[in-house]
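Running this now, will post back.
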Amino acid sequence: ASLYAAYLLAKEKKDLKIAIFEKGKAINERACPAIKNKKPCCKCKVCSIMSGVAGAGAFSDGKFPITNDFGGSLWEKIGKEESLALQEEVDKINQELFSKTQNPEDFPKRYSSKDTVYKKICTQHNLHLLDADIRHLGTDKAKIIFMQLEQELIDLGVKFFTSTNIENITKDGLKYNIGGLASTNQLVIATGRSGNELVSKICEDFNIKTTSNKVDLGIRFECPDEIWNHITKDLYESKIVYKTKLYEDEVRTFCMNPSGEVVTENTNGLITVNGHAFEDQDKKTSNINFALLVSRTFTEPFKDSTKYGNAIVALSNMLGGGVIVQRYGDLIRGKRSTKERMANNTVIPTLNAEPGNLGDVLPKRTLDDILEMIEKLDHLVPGMTNDDNLLYGVEVKNYNFKTKDMPEGRQFEVMPNMFIIGDGSGWTHSLSQAAASGVFLAKNYLGK
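Update: finished.
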């Protein structure tokens, strides 16, 4: 969100002084020792997967979905047509940045789930395939684009202060003080999901109104690529939603990574699971992974969905020392997976995780929902219920409280000349919508 906002501003308003304060490192300095050495999470003080220039998006498989059906509710702020138009503009910016150092013909293709035969097949099995165009850049080509974006910002005079953790914002007259390091009369806060504690503190300090948001809780599923490749070759990612018969809860697929890897994330000391994939053929694996998530929203008397999700993750970390992996066959039989059974498994895990029992971690209702979803998907994709398929846990997607704008204020303006955008605002949940919120801000407000 911040990079795309700064990019448009720096190009069009050359008299502005723009600084970006970043908790993590520059892109080319970001490296996860656990991924590099194929080891469990090293619990770095600042996670290079979650923090650094380009945020968690830099290592997130580089998927830019162009849709209002998922990835946030930016359209509620600015309208459906403008939301899609801005996401298209982000896609165009990415193409331009890529083409400056690479062959334009190597820019990854765009997939679409609209008007495909798979929508009919899903509907026949009471599954709902969401409409979207998706540009899959891969972790490798997304990094090329973000590095070019970072360099262009530097060339345009934008100052980066990396490895700089901002703990508070104060106000002195018309100026905002940024952690005692700088002051400004126009402040943009774009902390991403992992910055929810800072955003919550800022909202509390300035009495900024918020509305409660949800938490997505579930697992990451891994199986052989062959099971899904008849669909992924056409769609790449299938966003499928199912309403369970037992509880009428919604379960959805999320972040599908054909020929990808399962990875860990460290958010404020809590170790969760995620996945990514490369565009480069030489870096592809023989497995596909994706999340199966159940959304929970709390109202009264408990309203903090993030704390609930973090408590589940803490339990998983306590039992497994980090991420737990379990064979599907063991889970449905109530057995704890062991290193011996994993050694004989036909599906080779792409993440070195601790074998265990996710039934001891996930709430029964959530686990029931996920198992019902797997059985339902087996009708669409035979092989989902094979014993040797793997489930990793816990995967949690925390969404910040949605920030409310000032009375009669402009979109994303929560205090006079203070704006909260991107995933940190609670209104976007994807690379494309986060970036689009930055483009929107630059076009409409800052510099005026």
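The longest strand covers residues 215-224. More later if anyone needs it.
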